[in-house]
Amino acid sequence: MWVQILCGLVIYKICKKLFYDDDVLDVETSDSNAIFSVAARLEKLYKGKAYVGLRIPDPDTGSRQNIDIVLITKGEAVVISVKNLSGFVTVNADGSWVCEAVGRHRSAAHPDPVADAKKQASILESYLEQREVALPEGYLSYKVIIPNPKFRVINASYFPPEVISYDQWMLMKSENKSMLSGWIKGAFRGGKKEMQESIHQQLNFILSTAPIWDRFDSTFAINFSMLW
Fold it and tell me: Is residue 8 part of a domain?
């Protein structure tokens, strides 16, 4: 019996190697690793705090909204959706994406990631207001990051500015101020330093106590902390 099981595993590994791409992993594990990798790099680039895998209550539906990352810096809060997609991607007129896997002749449709990230930001802002934190206008923004090197865009001109492609993601450096100004505005210019510090402290406290995704277990948390 054990011989048959071992033979079956060997055949499975061979077939997987022959008919699937090298980077095809378990979807949940692969996406989770990508999210934590993006969060770690954001913290290094922008000297902020990245909160991963939040589950924020949605007052409209009574359910919880999953948010990949919320990055908190001294003058900004950014909701970040990580799309670990590979293959050729086109954007439809309604903003949805169609991703065609390389060499597989099959495609998958994805709802508008930018609209989804915008909705997440709105839900987060409502949640913060319930916790008695009113953010100044323009303080909270949203982005979609593509960290997969096998992501290919058919026509990049159709991509909205909120999308950070893999090539753009790789070009980001902490000393590159022009890249920073493209989506992280930097210092908060809308009030006094005391107000800025107060908001910053309140956000860190609230998000550190917010519920997180059940699927992110302690192993991922340990791996994330070990990056430091």
Answer: no
pTM check: above 0.85: no
Residue at 173 is within a domain: yes
- Enclosing domain of residue 172: 26-226
Q: Is residue 13 part of a domain?
A: no
Asked whether residue 17 is domain-assigned, the answer is no
- Per-residue DSSP letter, 62: S
* CA 128 – CA 106 distance, rounded (Å): 41
User: Number of structural domains, the chain?
Assistant: 1
DSSP 157: G
The Cα–Cα gap between 53 and 126 comes to 18
| 76 burial type by CB count under 10 A (0-12 exposed, 13-18 middle, 19+ buried) | buried
Q: Which of 164, 188, 187, 184 is nearest to 176 (CA)?
A: 184
Q: How far apart are CA 217 and CA 215, in angstroms?
A: 6
User: 159-176, pLDDT tens digit by residue?
Assistant: 788 999 898 899 887 555
